[in-house]
Amino acid sequence: MSNTNNIKRNALGRGLGALLKDADSVKSKNTTETTAAVASNLNEIPVEQIEVNSYQPRSHFNDEALKELSESIKIQGIIQPITVRQLAPNQYQLISGERRLRASKLAGLTNIPAYIRTANDQQMLEMALIENIQRENLNPIEIAISYQRMITECNLKQEELGDRVGKNRSTVTNYVRLLKLPPDIQVALRDNEISMGHARSIISLEKIEQQLYVLNKIKSEELSVRAVEELVRNLQNNKPASADTKGTPAKPAAAANAEISSLQNKLTSHFGTKIQVKSDKQFKGEIKIPFVSAEDLNRILEILNF
């Protein structure tokens, strides 16, 4: 690989600041619209004139953490300005800093300090992804979705994407493969009910029924990644599991009601969150639909046509 490409990869690996700095150096050689340009000074922009970034990879925000940040902003103000691009007079779109923008609104701020840059859609997606990965811990599903969007929308190969985000190709591949998992397993991974190691073991199983079986075993028996790897190998070799993580003989699984299990899986896929369906022999029971934030609740209510 050429020295130029090495410099580019190293710069991107350092974060959003390096990305924007390198974009500025390119601008002196190429003044096309694909180049990011730095504004000359800091600006105070009305929060009502800023729309959220449609390329934001983070889809879930912790309400309690936002409240804490909001209280800090009330006392200390905005320590680090957000970054936006201008779409039209008095109209801006966020590039990075959505948590700060949301918290500022909660704190009652009418204006917020911001840097104004020019960026095309591809740069918007890249900047948002890199900024979030390096400043906040995105869950694996959010990272996987972001990688897939960059591959699809920016026409990047996995190796090129790895260069952009400072990761090797195998890491990118492992994340993108997560999107092949059933929705309820993706939800469990998103909600930290299982780890990336668990998911990588599960995905090696071809049958969805086996994948869901392993998921239920992880949650009911708190299986370690090593135990899951052994369980997966046994399933691939058509061998019964011999023991649980505590070394005791595994209990035979109770025969699940196929109709209830199928309904639960369909509801999970429909709502995009893990639905729990409980029923007795007389088909009396309950359906639980969890939500993680006010926005998530509104999303579910929209699906229910409330």
From TrEMBL:
MF annotations from Gene Ontology: DNA binding
A GO CC term attached to the entry: chromosome
Pfam family, one: ParB_C
SUPFAM superfamilies registered for this protein in UniProt: KorB DNA-binding domain-like, ParB/Sulfiredoxin
Every ParB-like N-terminal domain range: 43-133
Keywords associated with the record: Chromosome partition, DNA-binding
SMART domains per UniProt: ParB (SM00470)
N-terminal signal peptide: none
InterPro entries for the chain: Chromosome_partition/occlusion, HTH_ParB/Spo0J, ParB/RepB/Spo0J, ParB/Sulfiredoxin_sf, ParB_dimer_C, ParB_N
A GO BP entry: chromosome segregation
Tree of life domain: Bacteria
Similarity comment: family membership: Belongs to the ParB family.
NCBIfam families to which the protein is assigned, alphabetical: parB_part
Protein name per its UniProtKB record: Chromosome partitioning protein
